[in-house]
């Protein structure tokens, strides 16, 4: 400034005119220096950084570049020049410093915000992010960043110590707790969900209370986003997964098997002892040949040992059609290519009731894909229903309108003849 005034003094200007003109020249000079510094930062330094990032073997720095961390950082250069040039203009020094410092604070906040976004994106590139998501913690860090940044900006503008504003916020703690209630609950829930490994991105969860039944696609501070199988999106509060009950199907997906648990109801009036003709037919069935032969040998040996009169089937041990049918289903499942052989496989009788005798198939398919699973289950029961008459069994079914019409026609035919 003194150099400019000395140069202008030789032109015989008045003191006031020389002061205005020297200030104007200095402002233009600082503006030119700031623009030049900004140009160097963006066109030379930034391009050099981009070239280094794009030509190394690391990938995490590319994500930082994508989030424009370095681009935002370059905005600090002209602001720093203006801030340290404020002393040249004593009457306006405080105002210039406040404006420049406020701008630098805002730019710093945006840089750290972009850096947190980049850190989240880098973390998501690892498989551990599905097990231990940190998006909730990132959001908490952003809340703290914006609060601290806001306090610094306000304290700078009003010329007060930030600690004074913080002490004033202490009196508003109850209000802040009310405002950030969901965020606090979400943070606590996020810690519990993560530490106990209760839910991950990609898990299939079922929560009827919120009509959620699908895959978790995102876990944030306040919500867990679920894409249902009908492609609708359900938002569940994070703390609801702690306070309420939900079903996580991850265990099924990890096991590689999906449970089949369904019954066929047998008409109890069709259950009987096996006749010689039935046994001869059973011996022709591939899955039953060994079983029937072995069982007949055991039964005959037992009956002979105990001198049982076999003229009556009530005496001693006998084969029943439902017992042979149960063994057939078990052997059929053991030889089915889509049934998981290393997991539980049971064909059992449940308590008979109004709908007949339930024969329950309890097994696991070796493909957890929903469409494949339903197809396997349908194929198995198609076969079971089709072969039941071979064993002299009838599947139970409540009378329909067609059955009633048939009975009525049969009764009318009987009366006529």
TrEMBL record:
Keyword terms, alphabetized: Cell inner membrane, Cell membrane, Membrane, Stress response, Transmembrane, Transmembrane helix
Major localisation: membrane
Keyword Cell inner membrane annotated: yes
InterPro entries: LSM_dom_sf, MS_channel_C, MscS_beta-dom_sf, MscS_channel_2nd, YbdG
Membrane topology: Multi-pass membrane protein
GO molecular function: mechanosensitive monoatomic ion channel activity
All residue ranges annotated as the Mechanosensitive ion channel MscS C-terminal domain in the record: 327-387
Ranges where the Mechanosensitive ion channel MscS domain occurs: 182-250
Top-level taxon: Bacteria
GO cellular component: plasma membrane
Compartment(s) where it occurs, according to its Swiss-Prot or TrEMBL record: Cell inner membrane
UniProt record, GO biological process: cellular response to osmotic stress
The family this protein is said to belong to: Belongs to the MscS (TC 1.A.23) family.
Protein name: Mechanosensing system component YbdG
Taxonomic source organism: Fontibacillus phaseoli
Organism ancestry: Bacteria, Bacillati, Bacillota, Bacilli, Bacillales
């Amino acid at each position: 400034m003194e150099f400019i005034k000395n140069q202008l003094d030789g032109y015989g200007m008045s003191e006031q005119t020389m002061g205005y003109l020297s200030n104007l020249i200095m402002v233009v000079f600082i503006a030119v220096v700031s623009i030049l510094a900004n140009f160097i930062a963006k066109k030379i330094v930034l391009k050099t950084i981009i070239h280094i990032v794009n030509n190394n073997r690391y990938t995490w720095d590319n994500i930082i570049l994508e989030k424009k961390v370095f681009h935002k950082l370059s905005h600090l250069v002209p602001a720093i020049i203006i801030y340290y040039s404020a002393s040249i203009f004593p009457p306006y020094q405080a105002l210039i410093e406040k404006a420049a410092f406020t701008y630098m604070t805002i730019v710093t906040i945006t840089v750290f915000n972009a850096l947190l976004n980049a850190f989240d994106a880098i973390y998501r590139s690892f498989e551990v992010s599905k097990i231990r998501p940190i998006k909730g913690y990132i959001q908490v860090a952003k809340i703290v960043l914006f609060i601290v940044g806001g306090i610094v900006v306000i304290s700078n503008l009003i010329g007060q110590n930030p600690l004074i504003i913080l002490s004033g916020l202490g009196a508003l703690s109850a209000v802040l707790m009310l405002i950030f209630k969901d965020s606090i609950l979400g943070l606590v829930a996020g810690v519990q969900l993560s530490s106990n490994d209760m839910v991950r991105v990609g898990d299939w969860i079922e929560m009827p209370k919120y009509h959620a039944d699908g895959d978790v696609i995102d876990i944030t501070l306040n919500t867990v986003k679920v894409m249902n199988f009908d492609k609708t999106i359900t938002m569940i509060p994070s703390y609801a997964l702690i306070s309420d009950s939900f079903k996580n199907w991850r265990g099924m997906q990890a096991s590689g098997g999906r449970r089949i648990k369904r019954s066929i109801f047998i008409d109890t009036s069709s259950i009987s002892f096996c006749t010689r003709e039935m046994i001869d037919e059973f011996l022709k069935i591939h899955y039953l040949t060994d079983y029937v032969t072995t069982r007949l040998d055991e039964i005959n040996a037992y009956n002979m040992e105990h001198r049982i009169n076999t003229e009556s089937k009530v005496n001693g041990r006998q084969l029943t059609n439902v017992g042979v049918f149960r063994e057939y289903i078990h052997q059929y499942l053991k030889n089915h290519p889509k049934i998981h052989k290393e997991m539980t496989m049971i064909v059992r009788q449940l308590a008979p009731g109004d709908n007949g005798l339930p024969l329950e198939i309890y097994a696991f398919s070796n493909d957890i894909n929903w469409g494949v699973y339903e197809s396997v289950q349908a194929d198995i029961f198609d076969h079971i229903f089709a072969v039941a008459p071979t064993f002299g069994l009838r599947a139970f079914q409540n009378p329909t309108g067609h059955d009633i019409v048939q009975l009525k026609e049969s009764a009318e035919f009987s009366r006529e003849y």
